[in-house]
Specification:
Length: 363
Amino acid sequence: MSAIEAELQLTRGAFSLDAHFTVPATGVTVIHGASGAGKTTLLRVIAGLEQARNSRLRVGNHVWLDTATGIAIPPHRRSVGYVFQETALFSHLTVKENLRYGLNRKAPGCHLLHFDEAVMQLGLDNLLGRRPGMLSGGERQRVAIARALLSAPELLLMDEPLHALDDEAKGDILRALESIFTRLPLPVFYVCHARDEMLRLADRVLWLEAGHIRANLSLPDLLANPTFSSPHRRDAATVFDATVEAQDEAYQLTALRTACGLLTVPRVERDGGQRVRIVIHARDVSVCLEKPERTSILNILPCHVISISEPDEPVGILPHCTVRLDCCGMVLLAHITRKSADVLALKPGMAVYAQIKSVALVR
């Protein structure tokens, strides 16, 4: 598998970027970190908009930057699609003309999406004759995303593209991005603060702190790592990749195949074998010592206890502890009361069953 390899250094005033990482040249890498961590600066260095020193950047088989040998591909020759926080559309052009500009930037013979596909995927059919000043914020951002994709980039950079949108506009764009990213073999660097965006889009997460990469982990590994995702959060969760196994037409249910076994969820309109992403919140998992035989809960998985821990300080939930469970190599979290943990006498290594009350489909 080809990869994106980076050793990037930059100093600007009191801030220093020193980011070393390797990620697959496919899928969505979310760049996460506090304000001022250097997320936007990192994207600008990758795009060639900031001059780095003692640096190297290879995207697939192409070296874009190697200061040791004097290679520094200028921004306009890097095959990058860049979606800024502000859309940067051409105000004097119609939506159709803005999109055509993206098409004109692509290399001959290269394409990710045809014009009509981009228009359909991002719901732009009724906007083609308008100018940016006549569009809402969500509409402008959809045009900016479509324009970037139509340029057929080797790498798509997205800098908090949904940060200023209301929930409805944000939801519309997230659904479109999920569909596009699932279909296209395109590496994406996506800067965001919002946890829901990360859960829905990320395949991998670069955790940036003060200009340094503190973690480079797959999303499931990040969520299972207490250093980067507190297991005691109210919204603590585990993400699983699954494939559609079978449809139960009589009860309008779908069986999903996961590394932990089969899970039953409300009907998913996907064909057999298609990949989906599910999230299981810790608050929706209970623990049993024996497999329940007569229960309304359909999803019951055998596990082993990894650890039982309590929050160091109040985190807004009822007195509880978090049980980390090993389910066929995947980590599952369960929030239960301390009393329940004592009554069951839970200890690391014990064989138990996890009852999963709810499974949410996120992609």
